[in-house]
Specification:
By secondary structure, the protein is an alpha/beta fold. The chain is built from 12 helices and 19 strands. It has helices at residues 32-42, 57-63, 78-88, 109-119, 164-173, 183-189, 209-218, 263-275, 281-284, 298-310, 333-344, 362-365; strands spanning 3-8, 26-27, 30-31, 45-52, 70-73, 96-101, 124-130, 135-137, 146-148, 154-156, 160-163, 194-198, 225-238, 241-244, 247-250, 253-255, 314-323, 351-356, 369-379. Strands 1, 4, 5, 6, 7, 10, 11 and 12 form an 8-stranded mixed β-sheet that branches. The chain has a 5-stranded mixed β-sheet with strand order 16-13-19-17-18.
């Protein structure tokens, strides 16, 4: 039996932590969204619609390059996004359609076949797992709890299967202030019969940061931790401000360099490149190239971080030490950490900036220049 498919991929995935929206993040070297798209097409989807936000259209085109799919614009809620995807389908009204969450990457042809078979005698079908844990209800962790019987309770998964027109009709009939949490709920409310097919732990939804580590293991990926280190130094010269770790600091001198001479960002860029074996900053941004004259070093760091992600890597933490007698770093350290966390899309506690002096010894002690060193950990 032929079918069409709609993948909902318009969310921000904020609960999944740093690293951007989860549908674009790499899982075993492949974007999360592409896992589901490839699987549904391989299972026989005649038509594939991927619902994305306006900002996500360009990246979706890159992530799904080479696959047969069409975009639909996401709405303010999941329900509106699903309806947008349904409206973009062109097949007959009674054609089965699978609605799938992009955050469940491990769908297979076996899941699809079970859903198609179940749909022969029902208005809808979905994979589900019986609830194995004891359930507790509590307003807050400290308020005391009551036990909820788990008999007859199931954990709903996706993809969920329906006749296209039946689902459209059910959504049109939905009333009330609450938002449906899945599509089966909409059909159930409209009087439809929805049956369960065997669920699969592999269909787990990527929701929290730790879910990605588990998914990597499910995908058979063994990751290693790579350490990279970087060092940079610049001499002082005439000027009225200095850039350090992406923060401008008023000062009676400036650091001299081909770019903005941000030694902290240069050291950190080299550390990232070193961790993935991609040379050094001079290989990617030669000082002989006039286009980098006076350039903001933010660009160098973002480029190195993108190379880490392109290899399927994840930056675990970064640690920068600035070595100088002046300017005083402590008043600006919080702003530096925040800027690095922003540039690298890391939580603040994964970013460290420290400062030290050389007690008057050497070129930094004599005030001739400033140095920086950085250490990073990257999972690859």
């Amino acid at each position: 039996m032929g079918f069409s498919a709609v993948i909902v991929a318009a969310g921000s995935g904020a609960r999944a932590g740093a690293g951007g929206a989860k549908q674009w993040r790499l899982l075993a070297g492949k974007p999360v969204l592409r896992w589901s798209a490839e699987a549904l097409l391989a299972a026989g989807a005649r038509e594939l619609i991927v619902v994305v936000s306006q900002d996500g259209e360009a990246i979706a085109a890159e992530v799904l390059a080479g696959l047969a799919w069409r975009p639909a614009r996401g709405g303010a809620t999941r329900a509106l996004s699903v309806q947008s995807g349904l409206a973009a389908l062109t097949g007959p009204a009674d054609e089965p359609v699978l609605i799938h969450d992009a955050a469940r990457p491990f769908v297979t042809a076996n899941h699809v076949q079970a859903l198609m078979a179940a749909l022969e005698s029902a208005d809808g079908a979905l994979p589900a797992l019986p609830v194995a844990d004891t359930l507790k209800r509590a307003a807050t962790p400290e308020s005391g709890s009551t036990t909820i019987p788990r008999d007859g309770l199931w954990r709903a998964q996706t993809p969920q299967a329906f006749r296209r027109e039946r689902l459209i009709t059910a959504y049109a009939a939905w009333t009330g202030d609450i938002e449906p949490t899945d599509d089966a709920q909409v059909v159930e409310r409209d009087g439809g019969k929805v049956v369960l097919t065997p669920g699969d732990p592999m269909l787990t939804k990527l929701t929290w940061p730790e879910d990605f580590e588990m998914a990597e293991r499910l995908a058979g990926v063994t990751r290693s931790t790579r350490i990279g280190q970087g060092f940079d130094a610049h001499r002082w010269g005439p000027g009225d401000a200095v850039w350090l770790c992406g923060v401008r600091i008023d000062h009676n001198e400036t650091l001299i360099g081909h770019s903005d001479a941000d030694a902290g960002l240069h050291a950190l860029t080299d550390a990232l490149l070193g961790a993935i074996g991609e040379g050094d900053i001079g290989d990617h941004f030669p000082p002989t190239d006039p286009q980098w004259k006076g350039a903001s070093s933010d660009r160098f760091l973002v480029h190195a971080a993108a190379l880490v992600r392109a290899k399927g890597g994840r930056i675990v933490n970064v640690d920068v030490t600035l070595i100088c007698e002046r300017p005083k770093i402590k008043p600006h350290r919080a702003a530096m950490r925040e800027r690095l966390a922003e540039l690298l899309d890391l939580p603040l506690d994964a970013v460290s900036v420290k400062a030290t002096t050389t007690e008057g010894m050497g070129f930094t002690g004599r005030g001739e220049g400033l140095a920086a060193q950085a250490v990073v950990a990257v999972e690859l």
